[in-house]
Here is the input.
Amino acid sequence: MTHDKKNIIDVRNIDHYDNINHILETILQADYGSHYIIVYPDLLTLRKIYNSYSKMQLENKKDIVLLLPFYETTESVRKILSTSDDVSLGFCDDRVSILDIRKHEKEGSLVIVDSKKAYFGSKTVDIKVFVGMLIEHAKHSEKIGVCVIADMGAFFYLNKIQELIKHETTLPPKFDLKLKAFCCYHGSDFSSYLTEEQKQNLLNHHGKEMIMNRNSSSTSNDNIGFY
Amino acid sequence: MTLEQKSVLVVDDELDILHVIKRSLEVDGGFSHVYGFTRPLLALEYFKLNYNNCAIILSDIRMPGMTGFEFIKRIKQINPITKVLLMSAFEIDNNELSTSLGSIMIDDFVHKPVSPRQLTNIIQRHIVGKVGNYYNTRI
Here is the structure.
């Protein structure tokens, strides 16, 4: 597949909230089979994305949501999903609500697993197999498919860059499955650990690319990195 | 320069956590020079210029761009006797620690969440030198 520039959603130099709205609109409109890459500038941004997206997907009751966080604990994710929507997000805040995490996890519509455990924790259950099992489970539980928001930070943390490239490049830019997968990369990981060739290789193996740079972050102190 | 006048360097990619730690060390711990960084690379740059004034370093482990392990390794290359504490909200087993740190020793490991008072006490104990090195086997 050649790199199609038309697929790049370059949201740099756009207001921060518009950036998140733009990404949310794009992933909410994603069809089954979508395999997108999101390069996010900070954890706050990722939280806003998965928080709004998960709540809307779970309220629609069509899909199983699989969240694979890395830079925060699964408990932190549960806490965020359990709280009221961040009004500063300014996006669809009248349509999302506080989630009953326990209920959703119990009925299997929400699965939250630490990314490191998901990708490297089990020698017997590969993440791809696990997602396949969730797709099967969706079929038998009056749902249509599965949405995955995965933070790929575990690969960098464990210095598994080649494994990351192999993992991503063996996945097609579009799945022939009832699956929507959003691979999330922290901007610092993406720029620090990957060569230009590796970055391009990763981008080429996703159906759509959403890149937010640090300038779009709302946390000015974080931009400086010194407090 | 007395120990109290020396600086404490804190690295955590989450600004809110950094703020809480910095404030508790300043207000409860009485440290007048607490420097917080959300980016390990900038903390390293600061340390290269100021390692003589730095009493102790407290670093998160899971950070984008550079892990806490890599950060500590580089700190030790600059000044092997600097006291370093690692902190994490995640379970870190012996294997992960020894694989990641190799022969590098840390002075303590702090499990998050930790109360500001506990953290202040831990750092104060290390600064006055009442605790020894922290070995991998203690996790």
